[in-house]
């Protein structure tokens, strides 16, 4: 890899082009530097770029301006404008950009042998008729002539054939040419050039304007700049706030010249077809469910009052502990049950989505996709714990998703900066050239190659094309070779690095010997050269080395951006039969979405904020490179199982009222779980019961993956029309509060970056650098993302919409300035003195940053929806090993404790959050504290059996009646939850079992860690969940039987042993006593068996496959059990009367 492109730091003045080129002289430095372009020739041989720096200490240092040198073209001749753009884009996609704070930003030209960058297809000046490579028609000025409105490029011969033999129809859009005379077309070339929205720049900000996709002359102010404020903050005049039905040309504010209000007549008569609909739970199920909740609530209240009034004087300590625990359990049950009162289901209509956004209409005559752009984030941190083959399969499933190719962009965040991940993604990009067209040709599901080839069903079912068997066999062989290459990358990188290192050492030794021969008197010393990690082209890897060194360690390396797959052309590119392609892709679109590798800069002394910081870096980089108004984030092991899931999520965002949705959450589904789901890894009670119930309130919580975000919601903006939709603290029960009644409405925590519907003028863009940083590219992209994310204004009932056909214009090509700016925004210093992580982007300060981020959005008045697709949208892996599962639950519970002790506690929520939603978030922060009362309650049966007492004086009818009512109502509620959620009874029972296992182990440890952090300031270590599989390849669930010792196992194992000993002691006392107390024995034994039944999966997991339990487990548990027994005897030694009753005439030998 030759370092041919370098972005240099240059002081306060800009470098002038060297030589006698046509570049302009440098401009004088201004207060706010802007991007200045200087070229030696039109071929793009020399470009100078600059960017603003932060308003901080480094403002006075020479780090403000950056310059990039683009390699000269071989012919040294000026290029056509489109060809120059294509050359810039090819340079970007073939270069590895690195840089960061106080360092040189470089563009290393990669010599890639793979086909990763070939997705761009033909050059823009070639005829696009299949089989023709001739040059397009041009006028006297050398500009391309586009005879059709669809801008289909065509040569003279193909145009003549289309006019004479093709019915004068365009080969691209199949629409008739409006003008078929060659002379007329040439004469009107200048007019066509002026009317085309995609032609060359006319003003400095034309690039951002063209991203807006629809620019009219009335929307340009006197300075020639696009007026974003007019688009964002309409008045109540012609447009009307939230109306967004654009007036016809020549229509004045009074609506003359058209339909009333200036609306097109066809919109007023057009029937509305929604994209989504609510499916309410049948009244025969939900009404009894709510009634049972009320009955159980009343029964609990009467039971607790009875328990408080009827004390057990014989064992007041036992009664006191039990009543405190029961009061907390009742409170915890209320918090968990109240948000479940309004569950709903939802459904989408993909046919309506296709009709509205991808069907030819008067506003979109070519039928090009009018869907908004979508950026997909995939995050990984450690290739050892998160295998690169799993990540590569996830990337391949994303690239093959059923979404417009030109609207899709995938970003991989490698927070470890590993060369292994980088080269694995390059291999995946190369294999995608075969895999993605194969999926499109044969409609493959799922589009993860590893999952597809491991399906346990007939792969030939419903496949009608005769060449499917041959294609599948060839793809399977190619994928097997791909796996071999990826699995061999660690050894290949290590051998390559050793070879290059040995060569460097030999060269250094030879140089030293030559100096000694030249007469040097210096003694011979062994040469010490840092052992670097080398790339395939013979250059140092700028990220983390296998042997860490300065500037090349996990927490100390430069920022890296590599465009693996460049943005595709806006028109389909169909394959054909040739020798290079092993498969026949005739009639199949072979384009690939953009794929970008990103590794943010890390330096010692900076808090990089783990996953949340990596996601925020992706948000900024993607805003500059593609700026999709919607963002989907996935874990590296969660792949796209349903190729149409992206469209289903977009149905909610594009439906009426969808502009008030901050995100669409998909359920998490898992593969590789043991059939019995011993440790409740599927978590179906949460995903199918709790999340559906929250969907009936303000929306489900954000769970970290499988979530489709609205970009401006992540930016911290309020939802549109927030005044009209403010729910108040309890909108379902109480009247809406007035603005002045909220005591904390103007607090720093609830204040948001409003979009414009607030008191006063429109938002001040000048304050954005303080919030989002000093990148002008990023700030300019914000109003564009807001506009492109609006629903389609195809009917007057749609509020805050955008005009149809506004997003059919292709996106801008990437150039070096864009990537250089993206490098700067992923630097470690960029977030200094900004609101990233505070109110913008993913929120920092918690292990569970996902829940906090979703809570902040709901707290600003946004809503979310839960999208359960008929075919699972995404699937991933989950740890089936007991130890890994406990550590995963420990991390979740620790984050909840942090939330409880922070300002993100739902007790401090704003009035914009509904009361039941507030209760749900309050339960998120409180549930770990149940472990304190739960572990005490699990010891109560044993203490009862040891002491011969019970929590009540006697097992009378009243106590048993209350106990029976509470138990029966709980069972009936469970049956009805199973009915309206669709889960199985076994899944509900597994959830109950693991609730007790986690509550007596991980949750208790989380509470202790949270208290240590709050009181003593001791930070909590973050453990990455391993995605590795077991070593036993013959057993798919071998990892299930592996026993790994952890201190979290001590409390539940101690509970098991003490309860078993207590049952034996209780039976012995009762059998050999003079007057047996069977009622107290039965009460204690019943609750002991209740505890043991819940802990059965834990005990089974400790046995392993062949009872290989570590000895330390039994040693610790035995010591703890003996200690507790001795402590009990010391506190309450047995009396003489008790000794006489115990055993009667029986004597121990």
Automatic annotation (TrEMBL):
Keywords: Cell wall biogenesis/degradation, Glycosyltransferase, Golgi apparatus, Membrane, Transferase, Transmembrane, Transmembrane helix. SUPFAM superfamilies: Nucleotide-diphospho-sugar transferases (SSF53448), RING/U-box (SSF57850). Its main location: Golgi. UDP-alpha-D-glucose binds at residues 379, 385-386, 415, 610. It is a multi-pass membrane protein. Mn(2+) binds at residues 611, 635. It is found in: Golgi apparatus membrane. GO terms for biological process: cell wall organization; cellulose biosynthetic process; plant-type cell wall organization or biogenesis; response to cold. Residues 1-35 are annotated as: Disordered. Coiled coil: none annotated. The active site is at 415, 850. InterPro entries: Cellulose_synth, Nucleotide-diphossugar_trans, Znf_RING/FYVE/PHD. GO terms for molecular function: cellulose synthase (UDP-forming) activity; mannan synthase activity. GO terms for cellular component: Golgi membrane. Belongs to the glycosyltransferase 2 family. Plant cellulose synthase-like D subfamily. This is Cellulose synthase-like protein D3. It comes from Eleusine coracana subsp. coracana. The gene is ga07970.
